[in-house]
Amino acid sequence: MTGEPHASQTSAVDVVVLGAGAAGLMCAIAAGARGRRVLVLDHANKVGKKILMSGGGRCNFTNTGTTPANYLGANPHFCKSALARYTPTDFIAMVERHGTAYHEKELGQLFCDESSKQIVRMLLEEADAVGAQVRTHCTVESVEQPGERHFRLRTSHGTLECGALVVATGGLSIPSMGASGFGYQLARQFGHDLRATRAGLVPLTLSGTHLERVQDLSGLSLEVEISCNGASFRNAMLVTHRGLSGPAVLQISSYWQPGDDLRVDLLPGRDAGDWLTARQRERADAELRTVLGEVLPRRFAQRLCEVWLPSRPMKQYTPAQLRELADTLACWPVVPSGTEGYRTAEVTLGGVDTDGLSSTTMMSRRVPGLYFIGEVVDVTGWLGGYNFQWAWASGHAAGSAV
């Protein structure tokens, strides 16, 4: 299915898909199933690199709880049509048809029992079954449009002509995996607006005093509820030697903007005031740091009491002082200095402005026959399989229309 360069080759197909990732392969499968002659091009040496590395090598391939509310974008309604027409159940049916064992880890997140290689193999087998070709090591040097629904691509494999061109090149995240801004360049070339891009689902960095206070706690993890700009997530927070990570932090990073502070509930699911009052009644002689160490990692409780909370025996706190302690525990302030950037970001926020695309077909409103799908579009999901589901859904929408 993959091909080697043939520099003198000139050929024509119905559909060229740029990018052999999740969205591109799904588009090829859907288009091929309709009898379209499809060629998928990728500049990398193998297909589905982000699929292979995702989920710790087991690929969190969808989320059973997917709804449009799990996505960010300038137009929150844009993703609704594609998501409604290709659901997690549809993708799960394909996975089961190929005999791939999977499990739910948490919060609707589905992972392969064995390896993410099974998802890539399944997609390639599905593409092969409908006659879609996949060509790696292929660099696109230029794209021209000689006429309506007529595209000419000059590539390292020669010249290609097609009636439909699908851009599934992904975002800027993890450049070491081959990410580039090529899809955004094409969008600009054909008159599309772009929403500002930035790293999403990414660890946050601290600096100065903020970092000094927690840096030596690197590796420590605790469950929190973390809030910023109206969004809130409850999950694990991990202290790193550069700042904060873990699922809760990755989730909130997509909502955080430079200059924003975060509010962290260190006792999620509890009313901190009621809990402290009960501890005062039951553990009157115990020090605060000891009491906190029973529900938080001990070293973290110690640091809280060194920097933020004066520790003394519980019986010595007045009701007003207990309220102050409760406020800090329920709303621990964190001021990130930045993010770790695209190097470690799982997704790219922003991208091709959805105002220029059909939400039903993903086709350009400006250039008939030109489509944008997956991460290159200004639709970004939460952590937990949602971005793969957008890839499957948007790819299927375009593949059903090209």
Q: SSE layout and pairings?
A:
Blueprint: E1 10-18, H1 22-33, E2 38-41, H2 49-53, E3 60-63, E4 71-72, H3 80-85, H4 88-97, E5 102-104, E6 109-112, H5 117-129, E7 133-135, E8 140-147, E9 150-155, E10 158-167, H6 182-189, E11 194-200, E12 204-205, H7 208-214, E13 221-228, E14 231-239, E15 243-245, H8 247-253, E16 262-265, H9 272-282, H10 288-292, H11 298-307, H12 319-330, E17 332-334, E18 338-339, E19 347-352, E20 370-372, E21 380-381, H13 386-399
Parallel strand pairs: 1-2, 1-10, 2-7, 10-20
Antiparallel strand pairs: 3-6, 4-21, 5-6, 8-9, 9-10, 11-19, 12-15, 12-18, 13-14, 13-16, 14-15, 16-17
Helix pairs in contact: 1-5, 1-13, 9-12
Describe this structure in words.
A hairpin with a 2-residue loop joins strand 9 and strand 10. The protein has 13 helices and 21 strands. It folds into 2 domains: 243 residues, FAD/NAD(P)-binding domain, CATH 3.50.50; 136 residues, Elongation Factor Tu (Ef-tu), domain 3, CATH 2.40.30.10. Strands 1, 2, 7, 8, 9, 10 and 20 form a 7-stranded mixed β-sheet that branches. A 7-stranded antiparallel β-sheet has the order 17-16-13-14-15-12-18. Strands 3-6-5 form a 3-stranded antiparallel β-sheet. The chain has 402 residues and is of the alpha+beta class. Helix 1 runs parallel beside helix 5, helix 1 packs parallel to helix 13 and helix 9 crosses helix 12. The chain starts with 9 loop residues before the first strand and ends with a helix. It is elongated and about 85 Å long. InterPro entries: BaiN-like, BaiN-like_dom_sf, FAD/NAD-bd_sf, RsdA/BaiN/AoA(So)-like_dom, RsdA/BaiN/AoA(So)_Rossmann. Its EC number is 1.14.13.-. This is NAD(P)/FAD-dependent oxidoreductase. It comes from Luteimonas kalidii. Its cofactor is FAD.
